[in-house]
Amino acid sequence: MTQVTAWMDGFFDPAVALLHHPSRGPSDSPYEQPGIHLTRESSWYALSLLQRDAPGDRARAGAILDAVLAQQIDAPAVAAGSFRRAPEEPPLPPEPREWIDYDPNWREFLGTAFALILSRHEAALPPATVASLESALLRATRGSLERAVSPEYSNIALMSAFLLDWVGDRLGDGELRSAGSRLARGVCADHAKTEAFREYNSPTYYGVDLVALAAWRDLAPDPWLREQGARLEAALWCDLARFWHADLGNPSGPYTRAYGMDQADYVSCLGLCVDVGCGSQALPRPVLPPLGDAMLHAHDRCMEPVVSALPPRIPPEARRHFESFQGERVVRQIVQREPFERRASAWLGRGIMLGGEDASGRHVHHQHHPVTAHWLETDGRLGWLRLRTDAPVRARAADRRLEIEVETGVDWLREARVRLDWVGLGGARAERDDRSLCFLTRDGTLRLSGGAPPTRLESRGDAGAIRTWRTEFAPGSAPQRVAFELSLVD
Q1: CATH topology for 2-322?
Q2: In which element (H, E) is residue 485 found?
Q3: Which of 21-25, 36-40, 145-149, 316-320 has the lowest average pLDDT?
Q4: For residue 478, how many C-alpha atoms fall within 13 Å in the half-sphere facing its CB?
Q5: What mean pLDDT comes out for the span 162-175?
Q6: Pairwise CA distance, residues 382 & 388, whole Å
């Protein structure tokens, strides 16, 4: 923890009492650029300062919290109680758009940080700052109540349920507490349908789920919420462990939402939870990139103080999967049953794993990874492959292979330009007939065969860097479906 706090020290701007964005890595987001000040991450830095409690840390934390509180949104009503992502963010228009003009989830992220600070460090703060935090929490939870997030949106629903209960108890607001109980019961009921969260195998959002469940477990005033937090946390770790490959340092896909393919190359909240919960020395392969100023998704590293304050409890039967590979297997899981069925499956071999999702002919999300492969190359580095497309995908894992169908001819795609992009990192070569791609792994050759041959090859960087093999259909020319097989051959 002290290393992360010291790292954040280097990005603190005393002129505005907020963190600069802690990275010089590339990003398309206007709020992930050098020089931009970050509201949410600064609250996590304030928590880390109170945890370290070195001379001057309390005063700096108080100044940061005052600066963060100044970013809370009062109007218009739809955004009330949330926070500007950065003080550089433009003023809100009269009818602001979610995700574009403001982020509604900042209510839950900032609110959880404030609740944790007050629970653990209230005595270290001036009374005026405590009162301001309470007022901000009331506005945030009132806004969250009005938003009425769906229980299916697990990472935000879990935080919202906790906050409604915690703030309602602290401020004596029975309406908030009742709303928190209803939402928590909705989350539990949705999970019980399949024993899975719908943001399935998502490296960033599973981490948020685990933090929120730890907050239920440790901080919720409602005893039932504490009990359910411990139960769901254990269940999530055990389900994740089935898909985890210790030697590859990642969960197998499919990923409902993901920002990358290798947790050693970008910061994920799940990587933080695994690293803190197991201890980095117990892991065969790193699950976080080296601490520095060129990390991808570096702002999520600022969440480590929150994870450390709510330490993960990994059941022993799950922990084994993170500390060593537990053997070749095929795993399957129903993710959801309605409004359409989604089924995840994976095959995990000695130095390779394949993951796929059958989403019943539906397109899930632009961050969806329905087909994934990870492997160890002959030099021990990690290679990977994923399919990127807007077309619906049906992928099913079996022993040593994935069977894949891409439904390129569905009605809503007929007048669109349809692309199938196979994006990979690692050594690869096209076969002579141009009908397959071969990736050389430590344990054999991973062959992608069938379907339509790639018509264009894109590369980014030197040999061995990320490459894209693209098949593209002009509007109206795509077949009804394209079938592939991804298989490990000797």
Answers
A1: Glycosyltransferase (1.50.10)
A2: strand 482-489
A3: 21-25
A4: 26
A5: 98
A6: 19
